[in-house]
Automatic annotation (TrEMBL):
Coiled coil feature spans: none
Taxonomic lineage: Bacteria, Pseudomonadati, Pseudomonadota, Betaproteobacteria, Burkholderiales
InterPro entries: SLC26A/SulP_dom (IPR011547), SLC26A/SulP_fam (IPR001902)
Record keywords, A-Z: Membrane, Transmembrane, Transmembrane helix
Keyword Ribonucleoprotein tagged: no
Membrane topology: Multi-pass membrane protein
Domain SLC26A/SulP transporter span(s) in chain numbering: 12-377
Main subcellular location of this protein, as a coarse class: membrane
The name this protein goes by in its record: MFS superfamily sulfate permease-like transporter
Transmembrane segments: 16-35, 42-63, 69-99, 111-133, 153-176, 188-209, 252-274, 295-313, 333-362, 383-412
């Protein structure tokens, strides 16, 4: 939080208002992400509180807001299932926080810039697809144990709760309509965030069904279930703690590494996006941000919260609401803390179908069809790693999928780089073999294809003027061709070799290789 001496009255007013707006945006997202992750709603709120009260104090960013991220839901669900318990998962979150602090100390904040854009977009698109798939059952109120009633519909997948399905469909439509330019003409739409409007609609529907159509009322398992907290003592009792005996488990470390890498990538991408939107173009140290997020995840893991990242949805809402300093993020965290004491009864009226609708829209934004069309138009070198990342994530997990995408990008870049290492020009029986750049051993297949096109009785000019480095394999291949040239009546002219295995600042004088003829 900035020094109070630097906060004027106008900034204070703007930050307080922005903090309230971000709180209204973050509240349903924290609940929805926790529900989608299969954990208690309190775990999502706790992460939002830590993101506001801890990370905001340590971060160097003026506008970034941290909390539980929809992009980590997939990792959380699979990690809890594979590790067998939430306490073991919390140990992984704690380790991930330590790893992020190490990343920051090693100045790894710039590493995200080395990850190809198609891989990042592929990672986000795959997360979006998984979010949608995993939230559809919750949006439909699917339950195998649901008894047949007027409010349910039997399907091969289980009983669908009709009120939940209708409410989810209406909420999804409302969320998309809420963001249209025509809707933005109205002051209410501009002031009230879409997720908050959906939550308000859900609460109103719950109250109306309870009062006027009990047969169609949503059962308790289809609503948020927060325990009432009367004091800080009861708050302490609601906390969950990691199983420290799991710190030596290799699977826990694997999950921790995945969380640390993906959370760091999402944080750095969010930080860059917010800085580009900031009218004052203020920059924050990415290394400091990684350390702040690391401390936040250590605290979240120690107290029973979900993993934390900087979140672009909340950060952009913070910016658009007029935030000027980190005080706005701190205020949003304080309000989330107050809500667990004062708003429990209201929060427990929220249907899970509404929260599922919010995450379905979030997933759509990450994997919208226009993104796939755009990547296809950008060419093979963009769409192939993009699709490879998506397939890799869907078939394995996020970390392996990212690795597959990076590997494919490197192979494509290598191929593009090698394809034009040599150029072979032909005029009658004269051939010009030009080195267009430095030649590594990877270019050897292309060189052999060029040499194979040169017939007997030809005259060959070899120009290495543009190459400062020629790998020994390339030189050996050419020297074998030159040595065989007299047998094929081939004349080889003007061969000059740069110094092997180095990049000299000055060229060596021309020298003829053994076997060359003029």
């Amino acid at each position: 939080m900035p020094n109070s001496r630097h906060i004027d009255l106008a900034s204070l007013r703007s930050d307080l208002f922005a903090g309230i707006v971000v709180f209204l945006v973050a509240l349903p997202l924290c609940l929805g992400i926790a529900t989608a992750s299969g954990v208690e709603p309190f775990a999502g709120l706790l992460s939002g509180i830590v993101g506001g009260l801890v990370v905001a104090l340590l971060s160097g960013s003026h506008l970034s807001v941290s909390g539980p991220a929809a992009g980590l839901v997939v990792i959380v669900v699979s990690a809890i299932a594979s590790l067998g318990s939430f306490s073991a998962f919390l140990a992984a979150v704690l380790i991930a926080g330590v790893l992020q602090c190490v990343f920051g100390m090693l100045r790894a904040g710039q590493l995200a810039s080395f990850v190809p854009v198609p891989v990042i977009k592929g990672m986000l698109a795959s997360i979006g697809l998984l979010l949608i798939v995993k939230q559809v059952p919750l949006a439909a109120g699917l339950s195998e144990g649901l008894s047949a009633s007027a409010a349910s519909l039997a399907t091969p997948f289980g009983a669908v709760l009709v009120p939940a399905l209708v409410l989810a469909v209406v909420c999804v439509i409302l969320l998309f309509v809420w963001e249209t330019p025509r809707a933005k003409r109205y002051a209410l739409v501009r002031i009230v965030p879409g997720p908050l409007a959906v939550v308000a609609l859900g609460i109103a529907a719950t109250l109306a069904l309870d009062a006027f159509a009990p047969a169609f009322a949503l059962p308790g398992e289809q609503r948020v279930a927060l325990d009432a907290l009367q004091s800080f003592d009861t708050l302490a009792g609601a906390l969950a703690f990691p199983d420290f005996t799991q710190l030596v488990d290799a699977d826990v470390w694997r999950v921790a590494l995945t969380l640390a890498v993906v959370a760091s990538l999402e944080t750095l991408l969010s930080l860059e996006a917010v800085e580009q939107m900031d009218p004052q173009r203020r920059r924050a140290s990415p290394d400091r941000e990684l350390k702040a997020q690391g401390v936040g995840n250590i605290v979240a893991g120690a107290l029973g919260g979900l993993p934390i990242t900087a979140v672009i949805v909340r950060s952009s809402a913070n910016l658009n609401a007029g935030a000027r300093t980190r005080l706005a993020a701190f205020v949003h965290g304080a309000l989330l803390l107050a809500s667990v004491f004062a708003l429990t009864a209201v929060l427990n009226l929220i249907p899970l179908a509404c929260l599922a609708a919010i995450l379905i829209q979030t997933g759509y934004k990450l994997a919208k069809p226009a993104l796939f069309v755009s990547m296809m138009r950008e060419g093979t070198d963009r769409i192939v790693p993009f699709v490879a990342t998506i397939v890799g994530v869907l078939a394995t997990d996020l970390l392996i999928g990212i690795g597959i995408g990076i590997a494919v990008s490197m192979l494509l870049a290598m191929r593009a780089n090698l394809d034009d290492t040599f150029a072979l020009a032909e005029h009658d029986d004269h051939y010009l073999l030009s080195f267009r750049k430095d030649a590594s051993f990877l270019a050897k297949p292309m060189l052999m294809r060029c040499l194979a096109r040169i017939p007997d009785h030809a005259t060959v000019l070899i120009d290495t003027e543009r190459a400062d480095f020629v790998d020994r394999d390339i030189r050996d291949t050419l020297e074998r061709f030159i040595a065989d040239a007299p047998r094929r009546s081939i004349a080889v002219e003007n061969v000059q070799w740069p110094r092997l295995n180095s990049t000299p600042k000055k060229r060596l004088p021309w020298a003829r290789s053994p076997g060359a003829t003029s």
